[in-house]
From TrEMBL:
GO annotation, cellular component aspect: cytosol
Name used for this protein in its record: Alcohol dehydrogenase 1
UniProt keyword list: Cytoplasm, Metal-binding, NAD, Oxidoreductase, Zinc
Family recorded in the similarity comment: Belongs to the zinc-containing alcohol dehydrogenase family.
Cross-referenced InterPro entries: ADH-like_C, ADH-like_N, ADH_Zn_CS, GroES-like_sf, NAD(P)-bd_dom_sf
GO molecular function, one term: zinc ion binding
Species for this entry: Vitis rotundifolia
Amino acid sequence: MSNTAGQVIKCKAAVSWEAGKPLVIEEVEVAPPQANEVRIKILFTSLCHTDVYFWEAKGQKPAFPRIFGHEAAGVVESVGEGVTDLKPGDTVLPVFTGECKECRHCKSEESNMCDLLRINTDRTVMLSDGKSRFIAKGKPIHHFLGTSTFSEYTVAHIGSVAKIDPAAPLDKVCVLSCGISTGLGAAINVAKPKKGSSVAVFGLGAVGLAAAEGARISGAARIIGVDMNPSRFEQAKKFGVTEFVNPKDHDKPVQEVIAEMTDGGVDRSIECTGSIAAMISAFECVHDGWGVAVLVGVPNRDDSFKTHPMNLLNERTLKGTFFGNFKPRTDLPRLVEKYVNKELDLQLEKFITHEVSFSDINKAFDYMLKGEGLRCIIRMGA
């Protein structure tokens, strides 16, 4: 691949020209990486709800034309000036957030919210020069989350690229660069349920099931799935969920239902919906004295969290998490290594329900819009 270093690469990309319209496979020109950047050949990518949300352009500033995609795995094609941590041929995961390793957050053992590279949905160009690295039909194309993985080649900041074990199956570990790690980390890094404990998971989509998977791996004895869609319950059993609660089936708040089921409340709860009502229920359903609730879902801008202060004074703990508290460059390689070496009983194949060729990428959007499946793998070059 080194013979293309320093040159513009022409390749295929799925370009979103208009909000909500099918993506179009176009020939794009991908510029060489600049200082502190790498150019990556994407081998596998997958579709996340965040891609769909911004493709639909609901509730945020639209930016089109754009190349979406942020869950992926690939190989470094070339590196820009100043890049020493990566070289051509390295196996990598591009990540929607980053780790510069220099700011206070990166130097803290307690945070993964990099000052320089934390998620910025409004940024549509590269940091170094404020320009796009993509051109299609003579027009610059907006970047998405610093990754834009719906392209055979993409350019990313070095701080948003995690070098991983080349032995890892890329068609599976690509899902670790966003939602699955978010839910998994919320359980194993933040909630930290003890063996034999009880956990309630609110929302049984991909992130919630990843949280359930984390609770299962941690040895939780009871994992209570909470969702208003009963069709999700059967699938959730594969992820360790032992009991199910549909709030619609009860004439009292779901936190009261769970408290009655568990003799006063669960030991841990993890909220993965973004619903403010679910967040409040998740907090109020944990046991006093030791219960910990972890919020994962992103609420609406104007939402406010309300609960009686006694719920806190009675020694319940409320926490939030971003990307499961994983530092992208430091922790993701370790997570992949544990998966490859089977040190962690993480069953990624359970999350992958569909697979399509790159030319059929719009089918992945159809599956998600219909609520079918969890993750659809998109094979590049096919």
